[in-house]
Amino acid sequence: MNPAAQAQQQDLLKVEPASPAASGAPVTPTTPVLCLCGAAARVGGRTLWSGVDLEVQAGEFVAVLGPNGVGKSTLVKVLLGTVPAAAGDIRVLGRRPGEAGHRVGYLPQRRSFDSDLRIRGIDIVRMGLDGDRWGVPLPWSRSRRAEQARVDEVIELVGASAYAHRPIGQCSGGEQQRLLIAQALVRRPEILLLDEPLDSLDLPNQSAVAALIGRICHQEGVAVVMVAHDVNPILHHLDRVVYIAEGGAVCGPPSEVINSETLTRLYRTPVEVLSTQDGRLVVVGQPEAPAVHTDRHTGREK
Amino acid sequence: MGSASFSWNLVGDFQQMWSYPFMVNAFRAGATVAVVAAAVGWFVVLRRQTFAAHTLSVVAFPGAALATLAGFALSLGYFGFCVAAALALALLRRGREPGGSGESAAIGIVQAFLLACGYLFMALYKGLLEGPQTLLFGSFLGITTGQVTTLAMAGVAVLGVLAVIGRPLLFASVDPQVAAARGVPVRGLSVAFLVLLGAATAEAAQITGALLVFALMVLPAATAQVLTARPGLSLLLTVVLGFAATWAGLVAAWFWPYPLGFFVTTIAFALFLLAHGARLLSTALANRIASATIPAGAA
Fold first, then answer.
1. Which residue of A118, A144, A193 to mutate against B (max B Cβ within 10 Å)?
2. Which of B167, B181, B229 is the closest to A119 by Cβ?
3. What order do you get walking across the sheet with A87-92 strand by strand?
4. What pLDDT, on the 0 to 100 scale, is given for residue B231?
């Protein structure tokens, strides 16, 4: 496809975020915490996606969806600043990616801890707080007590108090994931970037962790950008979705994006979205992206 | 040694041993080496870099052999070779995750080649050495005050660096991806740790010999990590266990005519087995209590 046609295609696909604040008069112009404008990512010479426009406000829950290998994790890494964007303007909390420091919390794609790793869950959470500091901490100092209180508080928030003192390797997948969310939250980030946090959890744990993330997002006012393979566990918590296909992307409220017309336009091939009785969505006919999976699982980008 | 028999009167025993200056030096050197090796070894066990540690300890042997052959200070041979090998390992494993399967072959190559070099140096020296046995299995005889000073200075340097980088190193060891996202220089720390490991191995090898460095490097840390999952406590316990095994080994080697390396390793290994036994016992007890209470609760 020639570039002009591609650009045209992407213009068609762009769905302006329909935020309720935008319709009213600009009384308090809320600056978005996350802002992508015409962003593109290239890994190993291949353009994963381009022309991505997205604005995320504080307290919004956004899911990044799409087939395997399309560059969902790369989007998170671009926001994190570990992978440079190939084009476009990206602002994270009004600064360039990677410069917002601890104001951005990050949960990478599924890490499992060795079952014989003898470090407690609470220590893993604590590393999120002060693990990057040099030197020896002074025990019994005042700030130390405040930090301990914060660690306990965030463990309470994710409901992990019962097993936080067990070695992390002996916790179940769902328990580990809650502790890792606590680790990402411990510094009170304003943005939480989650890469497939529900991957390899069983169904009850998926909905429990999804509910936890939704609660954190809406109650604590943390903007959440979450890469997901399956939209259903998080569907009724979501404010917006970004659907990435090879080349382009489309974003908007779930009902406007995850329907047959939009996805058919995005993939340029017939895609059907079916809705089950209990409101779950099934996407049929979605093509898998070419098998370039180097951006998944390994974490090595260069 | 066997100059006197062991009398359970520890004060008397120590007074007797410490009336010999070389024994005082042995205890001093042993204490330094045990503490440094234990602290570094704790991270080795956590990072699963025991094979790298083993290679660096083996490298101590050609280092010492070359120093003897070329006639420069033994310590220089140990430290020079171990630190150089550590840098070589860091170079070979560039771009790899710690503990990845790809690193073992490269490390094995370095290890085999340097071991062969050590053998060559021994052969070139033509025998008039106290023997490869000492270099491989250690000795506590004839440690000079100068050597103790060198060990102490190197030990303080290693512990100082470890204290500064300890927390980020722990973060990078347990959770490299998040640590990197938080701005922790994961790669740099990995190289720095290998150099520390090289220095600590060079220290330990001077007491335990090249082949038994593990007794001080890995066994105390593995034992402590069996006993507790609290990082601070575990590290402290590692140092205490390493220190205790070394001094107990020195006492044993003084009173019984068997080599020091054997005693230290055996004591450390016995502690390791005891720790495992204690943990099995405590989990069995906990299960028993749990299974005793569940039917009651269900009914």
1. A118
2. B229
3. A46-56, A34-43, A87-92
4. 92
CB contact under 8 A, B175 and A133: no
- Which residues of chain A lie closer than 8 angstroms to B165, CB-CB? 134
Q: Which residues contact A283 (CB under 8 A, 6 or more apart)?
A: A258, A263, A271, A272, A273
Angle between helices A142-157 and A121-130 (to 10 degrees): 120
Distance CA A285, CA A282 (A): 10
Q: What is the pLDDT of residues B150-177, one digit of tens each?
A: 999 999 999 999 999 999 999 999 988 8
> Which fold, B10-298?
ABC transporter involved in vitamin B12 uptake, BtuC (1.10.3470)
CB contact under 8 A, B174 and A119: yes
Q: What is the pLDDT of residues A65-99, one digit of tens each?
A: 988 888 888 999 899 888 888 888 999 998 888 88
Query: Torsion over CA of A300, B97, B187 and B197, rounded to 10 degrees?
Result: -170
Sign of the Cα pseudo-torsion (B127, B128, B130, B135, in order): negative
Coil, strand or helix: which one is A149? helix
Radius of gyration of chain B (CA): 21
CATH class of A31-117+190-284: alpha beta
Please tell me which residue of chain B has the smallest CA distance to A119. Answer: B229
Each domain of chain A, given as residue ranges in start order, spans 31-117+190-284
Q: Closest CB to B168: pick one of A120, A123, A134.
A: A134
Q: Give the H or E element holding residue A93.
A: none
Segment A96-116 shows an average pLDDT of 83
The whole-number average pLDDT for the span A41-50 is 86
- Dihedrals φ, ψ of A177, to 5°? -65, -40
**Cα dihedral B272, B275, B277, B279 in deg (nearest 10):** -140
A40 has pLDDT over 80: yes
The least confident of A167-171, A191-195, A265-269, B269-273 is A265-269
Helix (H, G, I), strand (E, B) or coil at A283: strand
The Cα–Cα gap between B133 and B129 comes to: 10
Question: Which two three-digit tokens encode residue A196?
Answer: 């497939």
Which residues in A lie closer than 8 A to residue B230 (C-beta atoms)?
120, 123
Locate B153 and state its tokens.
């200075």
ipTM, two decimals = 0.83
Which of these, B159, B46, B55, B54, lies nearest to B98 by C-alpha position?
B46
Three-state SS string across B190-208, please? HHHHHHHHHHHHHHHHHHH
**Is pLDDT of A282 > 90?**
no
DSSP 8-state assignment for residue A166: S
* Dihedral-angle region of residue B71 (phi above 0 means left; psi in -120 to 50 means alpha; beta otherwise): left
Identify which of B191, B184, B167 has the alpha carbon closest to the alpha carbon of residue A134. B167
DSSP state of B211: G
Cβ-based neighbour number of residue A31 at 10 Å: 12
- Which residue in B64, B58, B61, B118 sits closest to B89, CA to CA? B58
**Contact yes or no for B140/B260 (Cβ under 8 A):** yes
Query: Which residue in A54, A2, A6, A4 sits closest to A266, CA to CA?
Result: A6
Say which of A118, A133, A167 has its CB closest to residue B167. Answer: A133
